Amino acid sequence: MVKPKLAPPVLGPIACPKHLNDLERPFPGAPGERDGLDLLVTTDRLNRSLAERILHELRARVSREVTVAILGLAYKPSSHVIEESQAMMMAKAFLERGARVLAYDPLAGEAANLELGGRALIMDNARDCLRDADLVLIATPDPEFKTITVADFRRGGRPVLVMDFWRILSDQLSGAEGIEYVPYGRGAATLPSDVFTQLWGATPTRYGR
């Protein structure tokens, strides 16, 4: 039996969530025939647990003065499916904390807007999300996001934290002035201990709150 390939190590389920739910049901074949399916389900659970840990670390540092931009809302690039999307889970968590959420996805924007009940601002393009963002989450490796440059972040002297779960902007953003770039999942990369203090300490109260 050919073993299935593992999914990328961070965000993104490895198969359609509806199909993964089916895999959890009793399987009539011999024990050895289920090994590959168990690997798919286990890998998906691992991906979900990683997203939960990221959320836990960020939620404690998000206030009403923070604008969060999420690029990629579908469960994978070039898809309109948002079911079980970790990006959608994070968007809801930030909204519950009172943060202002801007988001963009080339195909899933309309579905995401309905799911979020209009609480987040679904933008027409990625760059509109970046202009006001204090925190940017790159949740899918969509080809459109690979064209982002330092010039797209109009910060007015304020720092911005970019968490890139797919490491697609390492060449463009690593070491850029005013941008704290975290290529999540590469080596020992972790969130800097003082970047949040600098970020929210320098962010004025706005948006009428």
List keywords for this structure.
alpha/beta, Rossmann fold, six-stranded parallel beta sheet, 12% strand, disordered N terminus
Strand composition percent:
5-15%
CATH class category of the domain at 63-201: Alpha Beta
- Number of beta-strand segments: 6
Please state the oligomeric state of the protein chains shown: single chain
Query: Overall mean pLDDT score?
Result: 76
User: What class would the helix/strand composition place it in?
Assistant: alpha/beta
Q: What would the CATH topology of the domain at 63-201 be? A: Rossmann fold
Spatial shape: globular
Give the % helix.
25-40%
- Summed up, the helix count is 7
Low-confidence stretches: 1-10, 193-209
**Spatial strand order of the main sheet:** 3-2-1-4-5-6
Elements, N to C (H/E): HHEHEHEHEEHEH
Major sheet characteristics: 6 strands, parallel
Rg of Cα set: 18 Å
Gap between N and C termini, in Å?
Answer: 58 Å
